[in-house]
Amino acid sequence: CEGLARSIRGLAEIELGLPRFNVNESKVDVIVGNVYYRPYIACGLIRNVRLDEEAVRQLMQLQEKLHTTYCRNRRKASIGLYDYDTIEPPIRYLLMPIEKVRFRPLEWSKEASAKEILTKHPKGIEYGHIIANYEEVPLLVDSTGQVLSMPPIINSEETKVTEETKNIFVDVTGVDRRLVENVLKIIVTSIAERSEGKEIYKVSIHYDKDVVLTPDLSIERMDLNTSYVNDNLGLNLSTEEVIHLLLKMRLGATHKGEDLIGVMIPAYRIDILHPIDLVEDIAMAYGYDKLEPAIPEEHYTIGREHPLEVFSKAVREIMCGLGFQEIASYMLTSKILQTVYMRLPEEGKMVEIENPISDRFTVVRRWLIPDLLMSIYQSRGSGYPIMIFEVGDVAWIDEKEENRVKEDRRLAAAIASTETTLVDGLVKLNALIRTLGLSVRYEPVKHRSFIEGRCGKVLVEGREVGIIGEVHPEVLNNFKIEVPVVAFEISLGALLNIYREKMGM
């Protein structure tokens, strides 16, 4: 609500241009220990905040929205809000053996151990899997030894923000330094909207060999051409009109030349990465309802949906009719997930990211089944059977291709239950292929990801299109799946070609 109110004041022309914050340095220090699996932290302090019950509720809502979106359900980062007057600096961010951790979590009336919090507290049950594989848990503690929080799970009851809170301390911890610092910018500037003097104080973060002041609320600068705006929006705005629209969107803007505008971007607008993002802001300030759609006078064609997309939609509908639920995972994934977890060698045919910012996204996926297994693990609390599928693209290095990369559209499906066998997968795959009016048969094949003797290649109209099998127990153990799984993966590109030939298309 704070950010929305700030935007509305701009659109209503109550306030124009950059929001002003009173930023100062504080004497608050945070000492960072060797928190090797969530190593980054950024903090800030907002003073003279005015809160009531509704304001506290809205702050918690903002926190959870950020957790869901930028923080990826707390996997990449998590946020803590505290009543600063209950804290005695300096603050330490450290790891502690799980068996030694005891504190009173939010909304509980008594102390509990870390294991009790992870297994019994609602937030522990929901997010405990993020740190479940480690024998030490992250903690924020003050100089008296008081536990402030156990990120990314829960804060302590003693430091919670209430209507009586006047000064709010904020921390963001996580695995991605840039994301951690960016999320802090958003939340401290939002809370500062409730501060009488918009007072934000920087905190000194002491790493082993570095000291960082956060938040960094420096203004970003970007040049924008009026002609670029008009070309993209189909308008004929003057430079002065563009500047005014930028000011309404709470951006700074100055006239640098006949067609050139210097734009100043507040630190919390981490979504602005390119001039086209500024064009989008201008369109919103101008009013989408005022933009009239028109067919270009020249250089246009009338498009249609690609046959592979039409075929993919049909396959999705059949799979849903067979009782499967569709999932959607990222095309970028982990090399370990694609190879080691699947009992496969780390071959050199995978398309790798040269400078990945996260070890979760290091390669382009070569196949879909590993993502299905990860989804089964993450859904284990929902009960069995689990029947899921995905239609998605994969890629691998192929020197014969013009760009040295081969791409393919795939269908993968998995069934997990206490009684799942290869027959369950064969029945479903048979139903899919026969619904398409094609014939299918299977031949035994060896594959390290599947149980020997319970794996086969899929042949449609005599041509190989994929693989089916019972997943190897070692693979299931790698994914911490405790029930049998049968999975299959087929090439929809190859299947479409066979279908078109069969139908004489």
Question: What's the layout of helices and strands?
Answer:
Elements: H1 2-11, E1 22-32, E2 40-49, H2 53-68, E3 77-83, E4 91-97, E5 102-103, E6 112-113, H3 114-120, H4 122-127, E7 136-141, E8 147-150, E9 154-155, E10 168-174, H5 177-192, E11 195-206, E12 211-214, E13 220-225, H6 226-233, H7 239-248, E14 252-255, E15 260-265, H8 275-286, H9 307-321, E16 325-326, E17 332-333, H10 335-338, E18 363-364, H11 369-378, E19 386-397, E20 405-416, H12 422-435, E21 440-444, E22 450-460, E23 463-471, H13 473-478, E24 485-491, H14 492-502
Parallel strand pairs: 1-4, 1-11, 16-19
Antiparallel strand pairs: 2-10, 2-11, 3-10, 4-7, 5-6, 7-8, 8-9, 11-12, 13-15, 14-15, 17-18, 19-20, 20-24, 21-22, 22-23, 23-24
Write out key terms for the chains shown.
505 residues; alpha+beta; Phenylalanyl-tRNA Synthetase, Chain B, domain 3; Phenylalanyl-tRNA Synthetase, Chain B, domain 1; BirA Bifunctional Protein, domain 2; 3 domains; seven-stranded mixed β-sheet; 24 strands
The CATH homologous superfamily of the largest domain corresponds to Bira Bifunctional Protein, Domain 2
Quickly give the CATH architecture of the largest domain.
Answer: 2-Layer Sandwich
What coarse outline follows from CA principal-axis ratios?
A: globular
Biggest sheet descriptor: 10 strands, mixed
CA gyration radius, whole angstroms: 27 Å
Structure report:
- The chain is of the alpha+beta class and 505 residues long.
- It folds into three domains: 23-214, 3-Layer(bba) Sandwich (Phenylalanyl-tRNA Synthetase, Chain B, domain 3), CATH 3.50.40; 220-290, Phenylalanyl-tRNA Synthetase, Chain B, domain 1 (2-Layer Sandwich), CATH 3.30.56; 307-502, Bira Bifunctional Protein, Domain 2 (BirA Bifunctional Protein, domain 2, 2-Layer Sandwich), CATH 3.30.930.10.
- It contains 14 helices and 24 strands.
- The chain has helices at residues 2-11, 53-68, 114-120, 122-127, 177-192, 226-233, 239-248, 275-286, 307-321, 335-338, 369-378, 422-435, 473-478, 492-502, and strands spanning 22-32, 40-49, 77-83, 91-97, 102-103, 112-113, 136-141, 147-150, 154-155, 168-174, 195-206, 211-214, 220-225, 252-255, 260-265, 325-326, 332-333, 363-364, 386-397, 405-416, 440-444, 450-460, 463-471, 485-491.
- Strands 1, 2, 3, 4, 7, 8, 9, 10, 11 and 12 form a ten-stranded mixed sheet that branches. The chain has a seven-stranded mixed sheet with strand order 16-19-20-24-23-22-21.
- Strand 11 and strand 12 form a beta hairpin.
- Helix 6 packs across helix 8 (275-286) and helix 7 (239-248) crosses helix 8 (275-286).
- It is globular.
